[in-house]
Amino acid sequence: xAEVAQSPRYKITEKSQAVAFWCDPISxxxxxxxxxxxxxxxxxxxxxxxxxxxxxxxxxxxDRFSAERLKGVDSTLKxxxxxxxxxxxxxxxxxxxxxxxxxxxxxxxxGTRLTVL
Amino acid sequence: DQQVKQxxxxxxxxxxxxxxxxxxxxxxxxxxxxxxxxxxxxxPTFLISISSIKDKNEDGRFTVxxxxxxxxxxxxxxxxxxxxxxxxxCAASAPGGADGLTFGKGTHLIIQP
Lengths: 117, 113
Fold this sequence. Notes:
The structure holds two protein chains of two kinds.
Chain A: E1 5-7, E2 10-13, E3 19-24, E4 31-37, E5 44-50, E6 53-56, E7 65-68, E8 75-79, E9 88-95, E10 107-108, E11 112-116
Parallel strand pairs in A: 2-11
Antiparallel strand pairs in A: 1-3, 3-8, 4-5, 4-9, 5-6, 7-8, 9-10, 9-11
Chain B: E1 4-5, E2 10-14, E3 19-25, E4 32-38, E5 45-51, E6 56-59, E7 62-67, E8 72-77, E9 86-93, E10 102-103, E11 107-112
Parallel strand pairs in B: 2-11
Antiparallel strand pairs in B: 1-3, 3-8, 4-5, 4-9, 6-7, 7-8, 9-10, 9-11
């Protein structure tokens, strides 16, 4: 069964360091999403890609966060420098629509648990 | 301001009985609703969805009901099984799919033997 892959599964870093997360969506899925989930809350969208283009990054703290999907397949989310408040689960999801359709189901990867010390 | 609300942080149900999880939304632009199940340290797993043109969708033990006038949806699980113990998230999206999914805070379902 096709799955969204993410790595690493866990990351511990000190504040002010740089961290990067990687996501490989389900093969053929044009839309890729990065979410952040703080404990006790639901996931919140950080950035959405359609192929290699950013569709929505309005909730991405651009002073320290960056995301790219250069070839329209896998994606990297980077935080530099990391802050204590960035400790959270970072989730990647993908969906199969080639155009924006809200009826498309998003499938999530296992996530990366980030702890900033 | 939360656009998707799950007002019950936790719910305890006896094995074999029906579990009913509730969700309310405020954004009338939402036209697609989904339920996800999440175990600790794992990503959300898609369970079932419903389009705003329907009022019910069923898949095995899971049924989702949508009441558009009340801006309310519910997930019914019957019969409840021990493996159903998890956190359940309600999510919604607007036409066009931009802005991704808007999630509620989740309800922790505990199935008691």
